[in-house]
Amino acid sequence: MPEIKPIRPKWKGTMSDRERFVSQLHYRPVDRSFNMEFGYWNENFKSWPIFVENGIKNNAEADLFFSFDRIETIGGRVWLSPPFPAGLVEETAATRIVQNSDGLLAEVPRDGHDTIPHFIRASVRTPDDWRRCKAERFRLDDPARRVDVESLKRAHPAGRDYPLGIHCGSMIGRIRDLLTMEGLVYAIYDYPEMVEEMVETACRLVEHFLDQVLGRIDFDFAAGWEDICSKSGPLVPVRFFREVVVPRYRRLGDRLRAAGVDIWYTDCDGDVRPLLPYFLEGGINCIFPFEVNSSGHPAESLAKHAPELRIMGGVDKLQLRSGRPAIDACLERLIPLVQAGGYIPFCDHRCPPDVNPDDYLYYLDRKEELFGMK
Question: For 53, phi and psi rounded to 5 degrees?
């Protein structure tokens, strides 16, 4: 990574980033809020003058550029190994047909602008497809799944001043990626045993990873990714989620708690509220990025589920592009949540390119005024 010259100083504080993060998500007093953001669309790095003129090309560089608090996560090979070969399959005047690493054929714009891909076909559609894919790409004894623990310990020493997380993969979201959303819905109905075996396989791969590192590295939190909700609610039947997915969460949660890891967030978009009781039952006690226009204001869910529930995110991205009075009103509603603890405020997804970059800097200034150290 090139040397990054920050555009703004780090927020003042009396605690380390690690102490602050752990205390804030345990509802304990802090010097000020943990300062982080989820990141930006790829288009922002090409269209925002503040990024272009300073040579900022990705989210990792932007974190340094804005002097956000440091947070790191360690992950392992807990999915396809090897992945499907990705690349161009066919090209038209307006679109490209590409295969991604999950083996899906997708139609994407030829000009490369950010959009949700239109998936055409999945490589796994039937139990026979799954058996073949599992034998080729989900082997537990794959040497690539071994973790170089000593190297990780050197990279993240015990005396570090930043929070370190362990990634717990995905029990159903990546399966949705493999089958497509429509394919998963049909498979739960047509081949429920196949889908449960896929969930079990995902769980065993994560367990294999956790067993190599837990107890050897001191983690502050666990992280996961599901993305199984839309604006109208869960993309999988709640009963299936409760009966098939939650028991696997419990298995992972037991391992985490035995190693002293009691904060576990998962990244899930859309309206997560119907699944919150089951996330909590399985041991996932923090939701990220908590999209306001799908899940409602974070105050509502915290009032219902705190102190067991924590939330990271919840700053309405639509308000960031609506001007400074809207930004003020949005942030001011979050003051009681930050004061109470169990909540870290930032944009409720990647910040879109239609946000005025000057207003975005204003947003960062107002965050510091409201949630920084007085």
Answer: -70, -20
**Residue with the two structure tokens 């690349």:** 87
| 283: alpha, beta or left? (left if phi > 0; alpha if psi -120 to 50) | left
Dist CA 325 CA 365 (whole Å):
14
| Residue 84, phi then psi, degrees to nearest 5 | -65, 145
- Cis? peptide before 117, omega within 30° of 0: no
Decide: 40 and 357 in contact? Cβ < 8 Å.
no
Each as own residue / partner, the long-range contacts of residues 42-45 (CB below 8 Å, 24 or more positions apart, any chain) are: 42/114, 43/113, 43/114, 43/353, 44/351, 44/352, 44/353
Which residues make Cβ contacts (< 8 Å) with residue 163, sequence separation at least 6?
A: 17, 18, 21, 22, 70, 71, 72, 220, 221
Q: pLDDT tier at 95 (50, 70, 90 boundaries)?
A: confident
Are 276 and 285 a contacting pair, CB within 8 Å? no
Residue 296: left (phi > 0), alpha (psi -120 to 50), or beta? left
pLDDT at 56 over 80: yes
Is residue 224 within 8 A of residue 284, CB to CB? The reply is yes
Strand 310-315 vs strand 343-347: parallel, antiparallel, or unpaired? parallel
Give the distance, in angstroms, between the CA of residue 46 and the centroid of all CA atoms in the same chain.
Answer: 23
pLDDT tens digits along 100-129: 899 888 888 877 666 667 777 888 999 999
* Cα 127 from chain centroid (whole Å): 29
CATH fold of the domain at 17-78+125-371: TIM Barrel (3.20.20)
Instruction: Give pLDDT tens digits for 303-326.
Output: 999 999 999 999 999 999 999 999
- How many other CB atoms are there within 10 angstroms of residue 261's CB atom? 21
Sign of CA dihedral 39, 45, 49, 55: positive
**pTM assigned to the model:** 0.94
Per domain, the residue ranges of the chain are: 17-78+125-371, 85-122
What's the pLDDT tens digit per position in 25-52?
999 999 999 999 999 999 999 999 999 9
